[in-house]
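Title: Request for sanity check on ABC transporter ATP-binding protein prediction

Description:
We are preparing a figure and want to confirm that the structure record we downloaded matches what your pipeline produces today. Could someone re-run it with the sequence below and paste the raw structure tokens into this thread? We only need the token string, no images.
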Amino acid sequence: MQPSIAIRDLTLAFGAVEVLHDLNLEVGQGEFLVLLGSSGCGKSTLLNCIAGLLDITDGQIFIQGKNVTWEEPSRRGIGMVFQSYALYPQMTVEGNLSFGLKNAGLPRAEIAARVARAARILQIEPLLKRKPAALSGGQRQRVAIGRALVRDVDVFLFDEPLSNLDAKLRADLRVEIKQLHQQLENTMIYVTHDQVEAMTLADRIAIMKGGSIMQLGSPKEIYNRPANRYVAEFIGSPTMNMIEGNLDMQITPSFSAEGMSVPLQTYAFGSDAASGPAVFGIRPEHVEAGEGAEAMPVRLDAAVDLVEPLGSDTLVRARAGDRNLWARMPGQPDLRPRQPLRLGFDPARAHLFRLSDDTRL
């Protein structure tokens, strides 16, 4: 089966500044792909190239097998939802939904049917006669999604659609967007800097940095086996604990840093792993603290530095020698700053990266 979207050797430059570098990407039919990265990484720029809102410098873009590299946005068969709602304030919800269809010259009966279908799917039927000023932020964003939905296209593009909403609305609409995808089974590309949105919505995630894709994979793949140090530190909150030291692959593999030595017999090395300077990473949720640490293969003596209660669990930053390590503890332990705390972890759950180029070992 041909991909829904295919990007071949795409480059985009503004004068002498190259912002997207020789990108290649395929998105499957009905797939939900999330472009994830920090501000300025190129994710929205890539989405705008797919939409036809930016002319690329080199490469090709295919949508449903058709080369659309130089096609106008209206002829690409896409629906786009922007970060800003961009609703016409003088029109009702119904008017906003139908405006583009009227301009396209569709029959009145078909326009009414498409608007009714979008309103039913998004549960905004009671709002059709209201104007945007009478809507909440979440309702306005539903209308913005509906405006893309009425176009009846195969591909939907979302450019940080929830970033203007408060935390509860973001969570609610995130669920609705996921249900919308499950119901429609259309191809969707979604841009965000929020890793929770990415992990919960995506079939696959493309993590971007500096105009390039650092890793492309399922949420599980990216979480469990990050391809490099940047991906490892970007996914997870708080970020992965990182310790610089030296890897010794002679006889029995081990990692050593000042004040610690970690045996690595159970670690799954790549085929090209070799001795040398390395970075050892372990996620806070894989660090046991207190009594649970005693059952771990590697144990460290530490002292509580900072406590962040989250209700269902507690984040603890502990000082072990000259380094801080984060641990996620279940429940609500009674901890105080400078209190002694035993830390422990299983090296099989660790991540090792070359110090020279940050790639995974």
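Thanks, this matches our download. The domain at 5-231 is CATH 3.40.50.300 (Rossmann fold).
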